[in-house]
Amino acid sequence: MTVRPRRSRTKQIHLAAHFPGADNTTVWADPRSKSQIEFSSFEHLAHTAERGLFDFFFLTEGLRLREHKGRIHDLDAVGRPESITVLNGLAAVTERLGLAATVNTTFNEPYELARRLATLDHLSGGRAAWNVVTSCGAFTGENFRRGGFLDRADRYIRGAEFVQTARELWDSWTPDGVSRPFAHRGRHFDIAGEFTLPRSPQGHPVVIQAGDSDEGREFAASTADVMFTRHGTLETGRAFYADVKRRLAAYGRAPEDLKIMPGVAVVLGDTAAEAQERAAEIQRQQISPQTAILTLEQIWGVDLSAYDPDGPLPEIDPVPDSRITQRRTRPGDPVALAGKWRALSREKGLSIRQTVIEASGRQSFIGTPEAVAAEIDEFVQTDAADGFILVPHLTPGGLDEFVDRVVPLLQERGAFRTEYTGTTLRSHLGLPDPVWKG
């Protein structure tokens, strides 16, 4: 990349790379789409992210394959590797890139997970991160001894105690390398003993939290270092950003202690028209006629295979508490969501497939490299985000064009680093080191 001198700016943009999961984000029909489980795919995307000086590389988690109408969901047939294992391998072939694993607090235990994350932090020289997710689903729980015991209302309560307990374990070694016994007595965990690893290079791995609900926002404000979210327009982004940042003070935290990074897609073209055409084609590939019907069935809760994807939405109301899709459902009231989609369909004259495309697309930056760089910069400089987690539609080469064509323009604007200046993920993100609590 050719890099021009930077100008001084108020805020620096944070960027991360999301390895596409087993869902309709990935365009499987594209001949450039490769394996979801071969190490070479993870390595390629991680190398691209590090070449682009990204903060971290982000992996999702799937503890059980989805089922739809009693069959394994087609898009899960590729398999779902365990993320920390993959990241330990990537630690050996990268030097500065942060390595973020999504790990569930419902179906793991603090001692075991704290040990695995501390190991990754040691092996990587201080680049580990943990994306904290919660679950209350009995369907996923069937893979575990506890089953689905956890009430939905308790998932964040257990999650918060889980993170607290993990941090107590990491703090059970002093900064100068002395091990001390630990003991935690709480509602969900009652453990005592000695932790097996000294304090890792970051003290604590970086904690990421995903979720836009009110309880998710509060959890992030109290606990997380990074918030992975989604919001659409510049205005809604600013409102979300302001709401979450204002909550930090109640926990004795400063606004810069939490980075807000929405997940986004980027589609580039040599002209604006070309970029829009490419984006429309990608959306048509992501939302096939079959996927459109499947998505509708997740909301309506009934078999809609007799409906024409190019025809109108069903007039029937959704079935509450349907089990037609197991493990992945759309949040919120299905009747209200169906009404919202019907209104959208009527307003714009959209078919089922067109409605799903319109309603399901994640936030995207679409345009020439110059226009995309300017828009990303505007979001960050006007406090709609601290940066973005890029979700490409191709595995593993979906970030190549962004790194080659957009990153140099962000650097020219003075809004993005031209080199890594630190060695740990905390240093990349500008986060304070955790205070040791002896």
Would you kindly provide a written description of the structure presented here, covering whatever features stand out?
Its EC number is 1.14.-.-. One of its GO terms (molecular function) is monooxygenase activity. It holds the Pfam family Bac_luciferase. InterPro entries: Diverse_substr_monoxygenases, Luciferase-like_dom, Luciferase-like_sf, NTA_MOA. This protein is α/β, with parallel strands linked by helices. Helices cover about 35% and strands about 15% of the residues. The protein has two domains: about 15-270 and about 370-430, Luciferase-like domain (TIM Barrel); about 270-360, no CATH class. The strands form three sheets. It has an eight-stranded parallel β-barrel with strand order 1-2-5-6-9-10-11-14, surrounded by six helices. It has a three-stranded antiparallel beta sheet with strand order 4-3-12. It has a two-stranded antiparallel sheet with strand order 7-8. Helix 3 packs across helix 5, helix 5 (about 155-170) packs parallel to helix 6 (about 215-225) and helix 10 packs across helix 11.
Topology at a glance:
Layout: E1 14-18, H1 39-51, E2 56-59, E3 67-68, E4 71-72, H2 83-91, E5 98-104, H3 110-124, E6 128-133, H4 138-141, H5 155-170, E7 182-185, E8 190-193, E9 206-210, H6 214-223, E10 226-229, H7 234-247, E11 259-268, H8 272-286, H9 289-300, E12 325-326, H10 334-348, H11 352-360, E13 364-367, H12 369-381, E14 387-390, H13 400-405, H14 407-412, H15 425-429
Parallel strand pairs: 1-2, 1-14, 2-5, 5-6, 6-9, 9-10, 10-11, 11-13, 11-14
Antiparallel strand pairs: 3-4, 3-12, 7-8
Helix pairs in contact: 2-3, 3-5, 5-6, 6-7, 9-11, 10-11
